[in-house]
Design goal:
heterotrimer; A mainly alpha; B mainly alpha; C alpha/beta; A: mainly alpha; C: D-Maltodextrin-Binding Protein, domain 2; D-Maltodextrin-Binding Protein, domain 2; 2 domains; five-stranded mixed beta sheet; 12 helices; globular
């Protein structure tokens, strides 16, 4: 117990006592805190800009951050701080254009338009933004607390009870779960997973002659990780959105103006009205967020429709869709609560559940010195586990991020409303060049740039054929660990071909994987 | 009653293509492009070979193709018959490819014309040579795509492209000593 | 003109060079015709990568050259070798690998293009601090306990981070009559994570174990190199336990084949200058984490590579019998 408190203290100190970036009034400002605030404001701005989303900003800033802070363990906290800031800011910022212009800034903010925009049209944009901010931050904070408590616990359980065969089975379960729950059909989910695995298996084997390269020397080092991920996630999205814009000839830019009235701002009784809705939304979001791959859109939809059903039953309640504060609160609490809980499988098992988590893993992978997984939470005797210090540093950053969101988030949100006017037709080509340049700088090879475009075409095709893209990315990341743990388990058990069925735990995990595919997929 | 599965919808086509390609890969690609087979026996012991994981992944892919066909057996929404989407994608890719080609060759061309005593490789970290390709190609990429999507050329598009390129040069090249902008790391 | 856009850094470098290089060294007779690309055959961020980047920094500071580090990891350094083979042999392309790349790995890959004679060896920087590592106070924290467990019929999981390490684990097992379950993991870090999680029992680590060993978390139960380990001078040599071979090796810089001898000498001596100068950050890292600099150049290095290749051939033959 004292050990644990020690680590928590070390984590907090790692953030607060880190190297100072500059001094204000004789007090040094730790670089991690500055990066957190910068990331948060960037995130709110990105969320407020239609056509941009948090993951896109994380993807583009990652190479810059790594160049700026280098590959030392000291770089971990500042880089994570910025990325976590973006993650937290973007959830908040997404509500801005949703409320003011009826345009969801991020996909999760779709349901926020339903009540947020009517309220703004009724002359109360500030009230709507304020409710969105409070519910969003409340949901986020709750979910973070669950993360702080659950992740170490889960990791310790996994590490002490799971041997190599069970770890393999657990990876199989997560991948099949993701295939089953994402997208409208199990077949297409599995297709996405299969493609991700195959691309990851190019030139990644143990033999000194690389496999599946079809004789291309450029593939000898495998497909560049960042090219595949950014290609499918970002470039594919850019191509698809540019096509929509081209067809509609800038239809996305049509906006409904809203103006505030004298009685704008939080109304008396609002807090009391939204509290139960926020609590329910936070719970829904946290539970859903803890499962890899389910996502914030589902959490928001679920929370909103539950709230709407209750509002219909209660006499005199304001119906959802007419600018009800409860409607905004239900959505924002739920979609924000996803982000913290989503890090539970990331930190304790190394399994990413959404795009933001993918980029956190990518950052950890690129910098080194922090490998998300059970080893993070180990407490070796007589030695300080630097990874655990980083983990508690991350928790500290998340808590401070929430504090910033509570206090200044609202003001920043309001000031970003101008960004909703940036035309996506001009923004997306810029984002494309920035992404390609960032990829080049990290990989220093034109091949990586061409590969990114190729994966962009794949991502475009998947979107057009309704094949979900996130399972591709997650499978791509988990492919290596999956093959490695299977090889290790096979060797360690003395070449037992039935190693996956060697213990009840692993059999149960495998059965759950099959059950996920059969039962979760149908209504997706 | 006519059996509905006669209509070739995009999803059905996808399922069939995936199934065929996955089976082909399992039979031809994986066995011929892996060095150690499914299991290897070395150091007196059997271990998993390099072909195992790809084979299982292609098996999963084949399964997914079958599942897609199965899921669409009774009903599937017909796709849009619009071919403008793929055509636009081709044009966008064309712009990207042209811009990248210019990016790669503009610098060496400038050196060959203006500074024939040196090689571009030796000047790859020297201004202004190292910036020529990136400025021309990068500006072209942004301007070209904006022009395409907005259906008209505007000076604003050119200005946005140029501004992006300059900001990127500032962010990567001026701020960091060891980073090379495209295409200079391939020289 | 050349550094028009990097006035600060360039000016600082030039001033520093002008002031601090009064002694004429061999490197003065040869200067690179352009910026040097330094390929790094290790993942970004690890100890070996940091070492390479600090040497690059030292070369820039001491000699005023422009050195641009660039990652070329994977496939035991052979990806880097393939990249280097395509680069011009004028001293503007060098790469850091391990001696194993151009001995065991190139032979095991069976591609004659990777033969060490097709490359120019420039200089080594440090020798592996290779130990056979186990958790302290565990069931395998001495060689006697390993032997005892094997006699009692306990299966022993032996982690190895490369084919050569796996071959050596098997060879050692053959010599002492233990049938190890050899588990190939990723890197020395993978070995140590496996030890900590209880997934493996013992494993080879080539230097990354020094921290955990100093802190008493792990022990070196044997060593794979000739000279005693800095942290565990009492650990026996594996040849004393029965192995026919050592598991030694160096971090080293290589260049494309047929490099101009003047360039080879200048680059080799420049790397030696940086690695052995106690003022440089590179030297600090080498002393702290790699058991101190161990620089071999020229004919001395060539003779080591010849010997390493002969031993690798024997090991590969012994294992495949």
């Amino acid at each position: 117990m004292t050990d644990l408190l020690n680590y928590i203290g070390l984590g907090i100190m790692a953030v607060l006592n880190g190297p100072a970036l500059f001094e204000i009034g004789g007090i040094g400002l730790p670089v991690a805190l500055v990066m957190l605030a910068a990331g948060l404001f960037t995130g709110i701005a990105v969320g407020a800009t239609p056509g941009l989303a948090g993951p896109m900003a994380m993807a583009i800033s990652l190479p810059l951050l790594i160049s700026a802070f280098g590959f030392t363990p000291d770089a971990l906290l500042p880089v994570f701080a910025f990325l976590i800031g973006i993650m937290k800011g973007a959830t908040l910022g997404g509500a801005v254009p949703a409320i003011l212009f009826n345009l969801p800034g991020t996909p999760d903010a779709m349901m926020t338009t339903l009540d947020g925009h009517p309220m703004a049209r009724n002359g109360q944009p500030r009230r709507a933004l304020r409710i969105a901010q409070l519910s969003s931050v409340a949901g986020d904070s709750f979910s973070d607390i669950v993360l702080f408590v659950c992740a170490p616990f889960l990791a310790v359980v996994v590490e002490s009870y799971l041997d190599l065969p069970e770890k393999t089975a657990l990876l199989i379960l997560s991948i099949s779960f993701i295939a089953a729950v994402m997208g409208a059909s199990v077949g297409k989910g599995l297709l996405s997973v299969g493609l991700g695995l195959i691309v990851a298996y190019i030139a990644s084997g143990n033999d000194l002659t690389p496999r599946l390269t079809m004789g291309f020397d450029a593939l000898d080092a495998g497909v560049p990780l960042i090219a595949a991920i950014l290609g499918v996630l970002i470039v594919g999205e850019i191509f698809a959105t540019l096509e929509t814009l081209w067809r509609n000839n800038r239809a996305l830019d049509v906006k409904t103006e809203t103006h505030g009235t004298a009685q704008d701002g939080l109304a008396p009784g609002d807090l009391k009205r939204i509290t139960p809705v926020v609590v329910r939304g936070a719970l829904i979001g946290t539970v859903i967020g803890a499962l890899p791959g389910v996502g914030s859109t589902l959490a928001a939809t679920l929370s909103y429709s539950l709230g709407a059903r209750r509002a219909r039953r209660i006499a005199g309640a304001q119906p959802f869709g007419s600018g009800a504060p409860e409607g905004i609160a239900a959505t924002e609490a739920a979609n924000s609560a996803v982000s913290g809980a989503n890090l539970i499988p990331v930190l304790s098992l190394g399994i990413p559940g959404n795009a933001a988590a993918v980029f956190l893993i990518l950052a950890a992978d690129s910098i080194g010195g922090f490998n998300p997984g059970p080893a993070v939470f180990a407490m070796p005797e007589g030695e300080t586990n630097p990874q655990l210090v980083v983990a508690f540093g991350i928790f500290t950053l998340m808590a401070i991020g929430n504090l910033l969101n509570w206090t200044v988030g609202g003001a920043v949100m309001r000031s970003m409303s101008v960004l909703a006017r940036v035309p996506a037709t001009r923004l997306l080509p810029v984002v494309l060049l920035v992404s390609l340049t960032a990829i080049y700088v990290q990989e220093t090879s034109m091949f990586a740039v061409w590969a990114t475009l190729a994966f962009g075409v794949l991502g475009y095709g998947m979107r057009r054929l309704a094949v979900p893209v996130l399972p591709f990315v997650i499978a791509f990341i988990l492919a290596g660990p999956l093959e490695r743990s299977a090889r290790e388990a096979f060797s360690a058990t003395g070449a037992d071909p039935w190693f996956l069925f060697s213990s009840p735990t692993s059999v149960i995990l495998l059965l759950m994987a099959v059950a996920a595919l059969i039962f979760l997929g149908r209504d997706g | 009653m006519r059996h509905p599965s006669f209509r070739l919808t995009p999803s059905r086509a996808l399922g069939a293509v995936v199934l065929v390609l996955a089976v082909l890969a399992l039979l031809v690609w994986v066995p011929n492009d892996t060095a150690s087979g499914y299991v290897v026996s070395k150091r007196g012991r059997v271990s998993i070979g390099d072909a195992m994981a790809p084979a299982l992944a292609f098996g999963l892919l084949a399964l997914s193709g079958l599942l897609i066909l199965w899921e669409t057996r009774n009903f599937d929404a017909p796709g849009q018959s619009d071919r403008r989407g793929p055509a636009l994608l081709a044009v966008m890719l064309g712009i990207c490819a042209a811009a990248l080609t210019v990016m790669i060759w503009a610098g060496p061309l400038a050196v060959a014309l203006l500074n024939p005593d040196e090689t571009y490789r030796n000047l790859r970290d020297a201004a202004p040579w190292k910036h020529i390709g990136f400025v021309v190609g990068g500006t072209g990429l942004v301007t070209g795509l904006i022009t395409l999507v907005e259906h008209r050329y505007s000076w604003a598009a050119l200005a946005i492209g140029l501004a992006t390129v300059l900001v990127l040069i500032g962010a990567f090249d001026l701020a960091f000593d060891d980073l090379l902008l495209p295409p200079n790391g391939d020289q | 003109m050349t550094h028009f856009f990097k006035p600060l850094l360039a000016a600082a470098t030039l001033c520093a060079t002008a002031i601090t290089t009064p002694t004429a060294t061999l490197a003065d007779e040869w200067t690179p015709p352009g910026p040097i690309t330094m390929y790094v055959g290790f993942a970004a961020g690890g100890g070996a990568d940091t070492q390479a980047r600090l040497i690059a920094q030292g070369l820039e500071e001491k000699f005023g050259w422009t050195v641009i580090p660039q990652q070329a990891p994977g496939n035991s350094g052979l990806n880097l070798a393939a990249e280097l083979a395509k680069a011009p042999a004028d001293g503007t392309a060098i790469g850091m690998v391990v001696s194993e790349t151009l001995s065991y790995s190139s032979q095991a890959a069976g591609d004659p293009a990777f033969d060490y004679e097709n490359f120019t060896s420039l200089a080594t920087t440090a020798e592996f601090q290779l130990g056979l590592v186990a958790m302290a106070n565990g069931n395998f924290d001495s060689w006697d306990k390993v032997m005892g467990a094997a006699e009692a019929g306990t299966p022993i999981r032996f982690a190895a981070a490369s084919d050569r390490h796996a071959d050596m684990a098997w060879h050692l097992g053959q010599q002492v009559g233990i049938d190890f379950n050899i588990v190939e993991v990723r890197g020395g870090k993978g070995v140590m994570d496996g030890l900590r999680g209880g997934d493996v029992d013992i494993g080879w680590v080539a230097g990354a174990q020094s921290g955990p060993v100093q802190q008493g978390e792990m022990v070196n139960i044997a060593r794979g190199i000739e000279s005693p380990l800095a942290n565990s001078p009492d650990a026996p040599m594996i040849t004393e336990l029965g192995s026919d071979y050592l598991l030694d090796g160096y971090f080293m810089f290589i260049a494309p084949g047929d490099l101009d001898p003047a360039a080879r000498e200048a680059l080799g001596e420049a790397i030696r200058d940086v690695a052995e100068d106690s003022e440089t950050d590179a030297n600090g890292l080498l002393s702290k984490a790699f058991g101190g600099p161990a620089v071999r150049t020229g004919d001395d290095l060539d003779s080591y590579m010849t010997k390493a290749n002969a031993e690798a051939a024997e090991l590969i033959k012994a294992v495949s019998e």
